[in-house]
Amino acid sequence: MADLLGLSARIIDSGVADEPVNRTTQELSEVADGIAVVESFSHSVAVRTDEGLVVFDASGAQTGAQVVEALRGWSTEPVHTLVYTHGHVDHVGGSGALLADGAERGHRRPRVAAHENVGRRLDRYRRTSGYNLVINARQFGWLRDPAMRIGAGELSPPVGARTPRFLPDDVAEPDVTYSDRLDLQVGGLDIALHHAKGETDDHTWAWLPPHRAICAGDFLIWNFPNAGNPQKVQRYPDQWATALRAMAAQDAELFLPAHGLPIAGRDRIRRVLTEVADVLDDLVDRTLALMNEGATLDTVLHTVAVPDAALARPYLRPLYDEPEFVVRNISRLYGGWYDGNPARLKPPGGAPRP
After folding, report:
1. Could you read off the pLDDT of 15-57 as tens digits, one per residue?
2. Residues 295, 298, 302: CA angle, nearest 5 degrees
3. For a Cys-Cys bond, which of 21, 107, 161, 235 suits 78, CB 3.0-4.6 Å?
4. In what order do the strands lie in the sheet with 181-186?
């Protein structure tokens, strides 16, 4: 087992990321008594209770079986409850492997808890499967099915191959949903599920009082917040910052994100969450101030920036998303898609109107 807490403490305290912070080892590490993290493309967090395991996220379809294997090397107890922090496929896609493993062991099917918008997201993924395959092929270079391996430049599967689907057919649908907050108790473990918007509109962060621990999903990804991805649906940087401050106020001793390293120590956790929230709030406030003055998007993009010192922090480096994209997303959220340039409102060319 890796000393993930020691590694994250050293990197945060020194400000130097001299080792990878977004690790995908497919290995399990116990980070507290009865709490383990499987490091995958999206991590899976497992907590022991007197009634079985509570698992937060199941990773993706490609990694789900490896996550289950790592988990079963730590515990063969039934999974009592599976909690989705949100409905992105790298968090729910491996649920089929988890449930299949339980069925083979003769375990009862776990209940699946999530925010009420997760089901709507899964429905949307089914309606936009082709689009999501295209953009993920473009972004990651291949699709979720290892047998397909469709490159970024290919928009059709190989001859004779089955038609791929973005959302795996065996994803477990939520059967326990909530709107604002849901309190659960499993085998003596109290769990408070809180809804907040951030990277998605269906996000959950969980507070585990007996462990003074937070399972945070993608509210912290050890990169600049993914609040502006140009190919994806609307993200919510303002509400994201509010959620980070709510988590910071819990005085947690253990913070468990779904990407990147877990963090121990209330002061360290509070500092990281507050610094990320401050950066998001500043982007929102400065962008809206310029929009209120009538500035064009081009002017906003060339005016609003994040200081280099902030971007150098190990958990704010712009390696996946970047401030410019977040500014564009703020503009879209509060002002629509028009950028203020009349030439781009109804550009010439294209197919003639009937």
Report:
1. 999 999 999 999 999 999 999 999 999 999 999 999 999 999 9
2. 95
3. 107
4. 181-186, 189-195, 204-208, 213-217, 254-257, 263-264
> What residue type is 236 in one-letter code?
Y
Least confident of 188-192, 309-313, 327-331, 339-343: 339-343
Q: Could you tell me how far CA 159 lies from the centroid of its own chain?
A: 34
Report d(CA 232, CA 238) in Å as an integer: 17
Write the Ramachandran bin of 252: left for phi over 0, alpha for psi from -120 to 50, otherwise beta. beta
Cβ pair 283, 240 in contact under 8 A = no
Non-local CB neighbours of 105 within 8 Å, separated by 6+ positions: 76, 78
Q: Where are the alpha helices (DSSP H) in the chain?
A: 4-14, 64-72, 89-92, 95-104, 117-127, 129-140, 237-248, 266-292, 297-301, 308-311, 323-335
Burial class (CB in 10 A: 0-12, 13-18, 19+), 34: middle
- The 3-state DSSP class for residue 157 equals coil
**Can you tell me the distance from the alpha carbon of 291 to that of 125, in angstroms, rounded to the nearest whole number?**
33
Torsions phi, psi of 293, nearest 5?
Answer: -85, -5
Q: Are 36 and 55 in contact (CB under 8 A)?
A: no
CA 204/CA 182 separation, integer angstroms: 10
Q: Which residues contact 163 (CB under 8 A, 6 or more apart)?
A: 157
Helices of type H across 169-231: none
Q: Output the DSSP codes for 59-76.
A: --TTTHHHHHHHHHTT--
| 3-state SS string for 78-127 | CEEEEECCCCCHHHHCCHHHHHHHHHHCCCCCCEEEEECHHHHHHHHHHH
Which residue do the tokens 């010439």 mark? 348
Q: Who contacts 141 (Cβ-Cβ below 8 Å, separation ≥6)? A: 151, 152
Nearest CA to 203 among 273, 257, 135, 282? 257
Grouping H, G, I as helix, E, B as strand and the rest as coil, residue 134 is helix
The rounded distance, in Å, linking the Cα atoms of 52 and 63 is 23
pTM of the model: 0.92
